[in-house]
Specification:
Blueprint: H1 2-10, H2 13-19, E1 23-25, E2 37-46, E3 49-50, E4 53-54, E5 58-68, H3 71-85, E6 90-92, E7 95-111, E8 118-132
Parallel strand pairs: 1-2
Antiparallel strand pairs: 2-5, 3-4, 5-8, 6-7, 7-8
Length: 134
């Protein structure tokens, strides 16, 4: 699901333009620079059960953080991403996304590791119901 979610985001030309193609899991890679950039993090994952056992579905909560110099830039990229994936249902790669739903959004700030540069962040949580495509 992780590689396919990243691929889904990068397959949208508006997302690629807004984030400069910088979409990664857990952190922006060493040596890559530029803002805005997007960091994805899986917060939780469950496997729903029925009375007959596993359903074959998984339910994940993914935090999607857009980092930028200005809050307006981060908010714009977050809006573009939301337009691309909120309510999405379909197949990407080996993953069937049954539905992607925005859960919550918040504006935040943080100091870069060198403590000289302050970045802003728009953090959005998405609930994702998915299964492996056979």
């Amino acid at each position: 699901m992780k590689a396919d979610l990243r691929s889904l985001l990068l397959s949208d030309s508006a997302v690629t333009l807004a984030a400069g193609g910088r979409v990664h899991w857990l952190r922006q890679p060493e040596g890559q620079s530029g803002v805005p950039f997007v960091v994805l993090q899986e917060i939780s994952e469950t496997e729903p059960m029925s009375l007959d056992g596993p359903t074959g579905l998984k339910s994940a909560r993914v935090q999607l953080d857009v980092w930028a110099d200005l809050l307006e830039t981060a908010a714009y990229a977050a809006d573009v991403i939301e337009a691309a994936i909120n309510g999405f249902a379909g197949v990407q790669g080996d993953t069937r996304f049954h539905v992607i739903t925005k859960v919550m959004r918040r504006d935040m700030g943080a100091v870069d590791a060198d403590e000289r540069r302050v970045l802003t962040r728009v953090s959005t949580d998405y609930a994702i119901v998915w299964s492996k495509e056979s």
